[in-house]
Write a structure and sequence with these properties.
The chain is of the alpha+beta class. The protein has one helix at 49-60, and strands at 23-28, 31-36, 45-47.
Length: 71
């Protein structure tokens, strides 16, 4: 896992996130980083732009829990 602690990362969270059950997103070195907004020192998920697009598409139709097919 990459160490992002030494880098200054501009994390973003939706302004509509009032429940506390949110994620924060940042873009660095061509990757999309995702972390739990309530556990900012916890693990960071690193996705390619294509992986991020796939996650968003599946989440929008309620299918984010199904693993993508590898081809």
């Amino acid at each position: 896992m990459a160490d992002f602690g030494a880098q200054r990362i501009a994390w973003r969270k939706s302004t509509a996130s009032n429940s506390g059950a949110c994620v924060e997103v940042a873009v660095i070195d061509g990757s999309v980083l995702v972390r739990d907004s309530m556990n900012q020192t916890g693990p960071i998920l690193r996705l390619s732009p294509t992986g991020w697009d796939t996650l968003l598409a599946r989440a929008s139709v309620g299918d984010a829990t199904r693993a993508p097919r590898l081809s």
